[in-house]
């Protein structure tokens, strides 16, 4: 009986010994995963826990550096010393981050500056980084060394590499410090230490500056023996955790979590990524622990015979559990396949469909029972593409994934006959019975259409009728379309090396910041300028510039129009108008003077004097029109100078009415002139400070428009009153057509008049603005129209 008990106890003792050896020799990575669940010296206050609960789903930025610090493992996961520390911090804080991967640290840093990540797990120590993120205490310090080929001459440090090509990882400490400390060294920026090692071995670089751990690890893993550590630099790589600027609470918690990591945990991480891969392994205690594990396993084999019967029962139960787990996994896989938003199709060796998901039904329009068992290539592949696609499928089946490209773009025909463009990724199942390949297709039709639209837009911008330029805040021209380049006589590449001040004398490097500040404040700036071509010729242009903010980057888009022909025509028009005004004014003055002399004669009859007065008034109106046209031109150009004098508006109104008597009689419209609502008498005055010519033109346009818009037999009322400002109103019974109300005061806007020019209200508004006043209207079918002119009281 005692022997039987001894026989049963011995295997269990061996099992316990094995488990003890296993726990003793477990790699540091395993120790790390158990340790992070212990609280230790780490604590979180209630307020901090509330903050963590609200922000636990943060975005963690990770990047692919060089092993053993941070790199992609064979299973595709991010591994290394840095991720081990970050995992401890994540578990201690109870966070469930979404990892945002970047191919390099510069790429990740751009994401961090753009606010695309909340935390960076491996942030190289540099003062430049502290301006954009909060930086934790360093958790990893790695000495940086110089590696050369074994046959390279002896060096004592970086100073011996002057004039030599030295590979450095972009964005890391050496890449930022060496140009300042050793400017004579020719840097070769590389994406990672591994790429730098290849450059060193191939002879493209004389040396590699990188962390010693990365160089040693890569040399062992790649079997490189012809390099050596030649010198130690004055730099070291300090890795910290970066936190977004507005989360100081998280920085405090991260520092606390890092501080709570024990010395044993840190040693375990270091040993796991260095000891197990170190060529000097014989003297390591961990190796002897592994030897103990092997011996314990051998002892365990001796006891397997005694445990065989008991294990049979246990294996049967485990097999049932495994079958149930397999069923659950199979069902989960089916759910994943069905819920995927990409096409998943499985084909046998003849090309018949054996697997088809819901997304495939949606894209192709075929129901599952319509497509299963049918030949995929005959059903959905366009005939002209059939030979090429079948050849790709055959090579995939016969040669495996290495025989074809990773991705394969090929169109398909839907059930309705529509062509959809699909980007395929293929895999070989190795199932000799039924399923040969599984393909995963992403519908990129809309993306291709968007890309085509983008190309068309770019083509339209490049060939637009006006010049289009994109300018940075510094004034640097970063884009010019073909028209803009031809306008200035430069090539587009030449313009990209120039600034705005190089092409126009109106803007200098000193005045550009003021112009940019104005554009940033107003958002849109339109101005006329003169640009200077490559051949030193000048060109008059109109520039409309817009300030834009694209993904945090300021940029200006400028549209440049050639107005040299317009300027020539305007100058010609001004010359013609000036000549016409001069040639008309002189004879008109002569006529007016002549008839003034006639008026002094004593032998004229009353009819002759009335006719003479009519001619004098007509010549006076002609002079007013000539003088007013010159004044309006200056008002439009912004060069008119006002010389105000006291003017009686009632007297001006009487003069206007005298000139409009024929119009009033022809339209059967009467006129009423009021002062503060009461009829104006012959002794009343209404004084304003203005110019009589402007007042005459202003009232003449308003009253004439009102008379022409009034129904026959109605009355036009002119009312003047003084308060804080002079208010002059003109009312008529007609209504302004709704179609022109929004543009009533614009140039050439008219409706319902055979000979209307659309200049009356435009002229009135221009004069009112020149006098420092304003003009507006109210109109309706029931109340008629009231024009309200407001002039300041000087």
UniProtKB/TrEMBL annotation:
Q: Which InterPro entries match?
A: BphY/WalK/GraS-like, HATPase_C_sf, HATPase_dom, His_kinase_dom, HisK_dim/P_dom, HisK_dim/P_sf, PAS, PAS-like_dom_sf
Q: What is its EC number?
A: 2.7.13.3
Catalytic activities: ATP + protein L-histidine = ADP + protein N-phospho-L-histidine
Recorded hits in SUPFAM superfamilies, A to Z, give: ATPase domain of HSP90 chaperone/DNA topoisomerase II/histidine kinase, Homodimeric domain of signal transducing histidine kinase, Periplasmic binding protein-like II, PYP-like sensor domain (PAS domain)
UniProt keyword terms in alphabetical order: ATP-binding, Kinase, Membrane, Nucleotide-binding, Transferase, Transmembrane, Transmembrane helix, Two-component regulatory system
PROSITE patterns membership: HIS_KIN (PS50109), PAS (PS50112)
What residues does the Histidine kinase domain cover?
Answer: 579-794
List, for all copies, the residue spans of the domain called PAS: 329-385, 453-495
The membrane spanning regions, by residue number, are 287-308
Chief place of localization: membrane
Q: Which GO terms describe its molecular function?
A: ATP binding; phosphorelay response regulator activity; phosphorelay sensor kinase activity; protein kinase activator activity
Matches recorded under SMART domains: HATPase_c (SM00387), HisKA (SM00388), PAS (SM00091), PBPb (SM00062)
Gene3D superfamilies per the record?
1.10.287.130, Histidine kinase-like ATPase, C-terminal domain, PAS domain, Periplasmic binding protein-like II
Q: Name one GO cellular component term.
A: membrane
Origin superkingdom: Bacteria
**Where does the signal peptide begin and end?**
none
Where does it reside? Membrane
Q: Which Pfam families does the annotation name? A: HATPase_c, HisKA, PAS, PAS_9, SBP_bac_3
Topology with regard to the membrane?
A: Multi-pass membrane protein
Query: What are the BP-aspect GO terms?
Result: osmosensory signaling via phosphorelay pathway; regulation of DNA-templated transcription
User: What top-level class of enzyme does the UniProt entry assign?
Assistant: transferase
PANTHER family linked to this entry: SENSOR HISTIDINE KINASE GLRK, TWO-COMPONENT HISTIDINE KINASE
Q: Write down what this protein is called.
A: histidine kinase
Specify the taxonomic lineage: Bacteria, Pseudomonadati, Thermodesulfobacteriota, Desulfovibrionia, Desulfovibrionales
């Amino acid at each position: 009986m005692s022997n039987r008990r001894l026989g049963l106890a011995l295997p269990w003792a061996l099992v316990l010994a094995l488990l003890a050896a296993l726990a003793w020799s477990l790699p540091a990575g395993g120790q790390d995963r158990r340790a992070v669940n212990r609280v230790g010296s780490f604590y979180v206050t209630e307020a901090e826990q509330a903050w963590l609960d609200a922000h636990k789903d943060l975005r963690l930025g990770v990047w692919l550096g060089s092993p053993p610090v941070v790199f992609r493992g064979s299973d595709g996961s991010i591994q290394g010393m840095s991720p081990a520390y970050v995992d401890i911090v994540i578990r201690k804080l109870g966070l469930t981050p979404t990892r945002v991967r970047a191919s390099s640290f510069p790429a990740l840093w751009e994401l961090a500056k753009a606010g695309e990540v909340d935390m960076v797990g491996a942030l190289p120590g540099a003062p430049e980084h502290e301006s954009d993120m909060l930086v934790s205490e360093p958790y990893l310090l790695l000495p940086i060394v110089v590696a050369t080929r074994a046959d390279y001459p002896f060096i004592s440090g970086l100073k011996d590499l002057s004039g030599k090509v030295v590979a450095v990882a972009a964005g890391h400490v050496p890449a930022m410090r060496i140009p300042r400390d050793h400017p004579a060294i020719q840097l070769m920026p590389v994406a990672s230490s591994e790429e730098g090692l290849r450059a060193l071995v191939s002879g493209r670089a004389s040396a590699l500056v990188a962390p010693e751990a990365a160089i040693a690890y890569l040399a062992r893993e790649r079997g490189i023996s012809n390099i050596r550590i030649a010198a130690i630099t004055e730099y070291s790589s300090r890795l910290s955790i970066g936190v977004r600027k507005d989360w100081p609470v998280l920085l405090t918690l991260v520092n606390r979590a890092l501080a709570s990591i024990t010395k044993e945990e840190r040693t375990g991480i270091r040993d796991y990524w260095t000891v197990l891969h170190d060529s000097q392994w014989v003297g390591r205690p961990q190796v002897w622990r592994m030897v103990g594990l092997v011996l314990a396993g051998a002892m365990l084999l001796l006891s397997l015979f005694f445990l065989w019967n008991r294990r049979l029962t246990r294996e049967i139960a485990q097999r049932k559990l495994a079958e149930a787990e397999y069923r659950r996994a199979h069902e989960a896989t089916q759910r994943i396949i069905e819920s995927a938003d990409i096409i998943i199709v499985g084909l046998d060796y003849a090309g018949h469909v054996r697997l088809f998901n819901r997304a495939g039904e949606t894209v192709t329009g075929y129901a599952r029972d319509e497509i299963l068992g049918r030949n995929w290539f005959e059903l959905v592949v366009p005939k002209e593409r059939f030979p090429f696609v079948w050849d790709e499928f055959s090579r995939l089946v016969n040669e495996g994934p290495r025989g074809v490209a990773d991705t394969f773009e090929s169109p398909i025909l839907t059930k309705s006959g529509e062509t959809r463009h699909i980007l395929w990724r293929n895999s070989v199942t190795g199932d000799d019975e039924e399923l040969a390949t599984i393909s995963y297709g992403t519908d990129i039709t809309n993306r291709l259409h968007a890309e085509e639209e983008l190309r068309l837009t770019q083509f339209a911008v490049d060939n637009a009728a006006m010049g289009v330029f994109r300018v940075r805040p510094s004034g640097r021209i970063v884009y010019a379309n073909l028209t803009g380049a031809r306008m200035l006589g430069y090539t587009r590449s030449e313009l990209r090396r120039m600034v705005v001040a190089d092409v126009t004398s109106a803007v200098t490097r000193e005045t550009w910041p003021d112009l940019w500040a104005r554009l940033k404040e107003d958002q849109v700036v339109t101005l006329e300028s003169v640009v200077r071509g490559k051949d030193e010729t000048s060109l008059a242009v109109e520039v409309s510039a817009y300030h834009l903010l694209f993904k945090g980057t300021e940029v200006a888009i400028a549209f440049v129009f050639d107005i040299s022909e317009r300027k020539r025509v305007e100058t010609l028009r001004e010359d013609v108008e000036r000549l016409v005004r001069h040639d008309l004014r002189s004879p008109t003055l002569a006529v007016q003077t002549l008839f003034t002399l006639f008026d002094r004669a004593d032998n004229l009859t009353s009819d002759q004097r009335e006719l003479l007065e009519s001619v004098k008034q007509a010549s006076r109106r002609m002079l007013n029109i000539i003088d007013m046209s010159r004044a309006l031109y200056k008002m439009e150009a912004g060069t008119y100078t006002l010389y105000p004098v006291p003017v009686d508006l009632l007297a001006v109104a009487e003069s206007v009415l005298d000139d409009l008597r024929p119009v009033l009689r022809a339209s059967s419209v009467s006129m009423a002139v009021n002062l503060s609502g009461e009829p104006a008498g012959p002794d009343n005055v209404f004084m304003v400070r203005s110019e009589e010519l402007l007042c005459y033109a202003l009232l003449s346009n308003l009253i004439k428009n009102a008379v022409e818009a009034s129904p026959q037999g109605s009355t036009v009322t002119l009312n003047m009153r003084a308060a804080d400002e002079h208010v002059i109103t003109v009312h008529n019974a007609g209504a302004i057509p709704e179609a022109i109300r929004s543009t009533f005061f614009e140039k050439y806007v008219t409706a319902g008049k055979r000979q209307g020019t659309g200049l009356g209200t435009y002229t009135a508004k221009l004069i009112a603005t020149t006098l420092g006043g304003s003009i507006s209207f109210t109109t309706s079918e029931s109340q008629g129209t009231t024009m309200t002119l407001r002039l300041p009281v000087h």
